[in-house]
Amino acid sequence: MTPFKIEHLKFTSDSISTWAPGDHRNTNWPVVYVLDDVTASRPTMRGGRLNDVYVGESRNAVARMRQHLVAPDKRHLSTVRVIVDESFNKSVCLDLESYLIRMLAGDGSYRVLNRNDGITESDYFDRDRYQASFLEVFDQLRRDGVFTRSIPEIENSDLFKLSPFKALTLDQAVAVEGILEGLFEDLGSGATSTTVVQGEPGTGKTVVAIYMLKLLVDIANSVPTEDLDSDSLFSEFFGGEYKKRLSGIRIGLVVPQQSLRNSIKKVFKKTPGLKPDMVMTAFEAGESDEHFDLLIVDESHRLNQRANQPSGVQNKKFQVITEKLFGTDDTTKTQLDWIRAKSTHQILLLDAAQSVRPADLPPEVLSQLVERARAANRNYPLATQMRVRAGADYVGYVRRILSPDVGADSVPMRPETFEGYDLRMFDSVADMHAEIRRLDAEVGLSRLLAGFAWAWTTKTDKSAYDIELPGVQLRWNGTQTDWVASATSLEEVGSIHTVQGYDLNYAGVIIGPDLSYDAGAGRLVVDRSQYFDKKGKENNAVLGKVYTDEDLLRFITNIYAVLLTRGIRGTFIYVCDPALRVHLQQFMPHN
C-alpha cells in the first residue's frame, strides 16, 4: 500500500487557487481533510477556549474548500491539512473521516464542527489494512500538533466514550432511523408518542441517547444551502419539511445517575449545538416551567417511584412536583409520570435487569412500558455487544450464573469459555489488586469494584478503611463523580452507583458476604445484615411495600451482573463466601 501524504495549506482563496493545479487528485480524487484554527499565536490548548476543527472527505477537495470558505461557521478557520493516498476510495475516506472525527472529539481540545448525519461501521475490501494506516495518519497529525493526546489516552476518556460522534452498529442505526421516522410523523400529525429502546449492558443505550439528541439539533440547525453528502445515513432528514417540524423544538436528556450525568454535561459543553443544561435530573425536568417537545431518558429503569428519597429536600420536592403536575399529591405517581406530563414525546432507554434499588421503577411498570411500545411499533431492541470483547452471550452467561436457582435442576448450567476475554477467579484480593494495577499501567482504566457489602466508614472517618479482607485494607470511592478518572481510584473500590453506565478495560469485582450459596438447596441467598446500602433494602412506607429477601436477592444479583459487565478486555472475581466461591468455580477459569 503506497504511503499517504499530508499536504498543508492556508485556508484562503489564494492559497487554494495556487494549490489546485498542482495535482489532478486535488480536484478529482477521494481525499480526507482537516480544517482547524490552530496557529502559532493560538496553539492547540488543553484548557481555556477550545480550538475549532472540522473533518471532511470529498472527491473534489478544491471545490469543497471553496464552499467552506463562504460557510459562516467555518470561514474563521485558518489551516487545511489534506490527506492524500493514491489507493484511497470513497469507502476508505468515509471510514477515515469517521475515525478522525471520533478521535478529535475525544481529544478534548476541540469543538468539532461536524454534523452528526450518520456515521456507521461499514465494511469494505481490505478494511483491516487501511485501518492500520489510520494509526499512521493519527501519528503524523499528532506530530503536526493537531492531536494533544495519545490514542490510549483518548480512547480511555469519557469525552471519547460519550461522544455523539459514534459509528453506529446496524441495530443502533435501525433504531435511530425508525425513531426519527416515527417522531417526524408524530410531529406532523400532532400525536403524542412513547418510544422504548431496550438493551443489555454494553449495547450502547447511552450512545443512542446522545447521538439522537445531537442529530435532532443538527437537523433543526441545518442550513438549506449547505452541501450534504448523499451517502450519509440520515441525509434525507436534513432540510425541507423535517427541519420545519423541528423549528423551535425543546429537547432534554434526563439521566438519573449523578456521575454519568456530570460526565455527559462535560461532553455537551464541548459540542456545538449541545448545552450542559440540556442534561438534567428527573427532578429538574419535573420542576421546569417549560414544556418539552421531547425528553430522552437514559437508564429509565433508574427513575424513581414514590419512596423515601436520600434527603428530606428531595422528599418535599417529590410531593411538590406531583401536586404541581397532577393537582394532588398522588403517591402512585412516579418520575416516569412526571416525564410523560412534561413532554409530548418520550424516548426511554432501559434494561429492567439493571434496577438496583427498591425506589427504582418496579418491574411491572417497565414490562407495561415495553408491551405498549411493542403494540405501537415503537420498541427497538439493541443486541450488538459494543463493550465486552467476549462475544454476544457473555452478558447472558453472567446473568444465568447469578440466577437465584442456578445449579438446581430448574436452571441447568454448563461452563462456557470466551476466547480473547480474560475472565478469571482469584483466591486473593491482594493478588487481584496487583493484577489490576499491572494492567492499569499497561492499558489504563482498570479498577476494583464491589457490591455494597461493607459500611462506608470513611464518609465520616477519613483515616479508616471500609473493606478489610485477608492481606488488604481498602476504601470506597473517594468521589461520587468521575471516580474512574480520579487520582486515587486505582487504590479504591468503586460502588454500583459510581460505575453504572461506564466502561473499564479490566474490572476486578469483589462479591461480598451479602451474597452466598446454599449448597443444600442449590440456590443463591442473601444476607440482609451484610448489605449496607440503606436505600437498597429500605421498605416503602409511603406505598406500604415490604421488600422480602427474594426482592433483595433480585437487586443484589442485578448489582453484581452490572459490575461483572463493566470490563471491555477482562473481568476478575474474588468471592467472599466459601460455598459461593466453590460453586462459581464450576463456571469460571481459576487464576
TrEMBL record:
Top-level taxon: Bacteria
CDD domains to which the protein is assigned, alphabetical: GIY-YIG_COG3410 (cd10439)
Listed Pfam families: SLFN-g3_helicase
Domain Schlafen group 3-like DNA/RNA helicase: 194-577
Official protein name in the record: AAA family ATPase
Organism annotation: Cryobacterium zongtaii
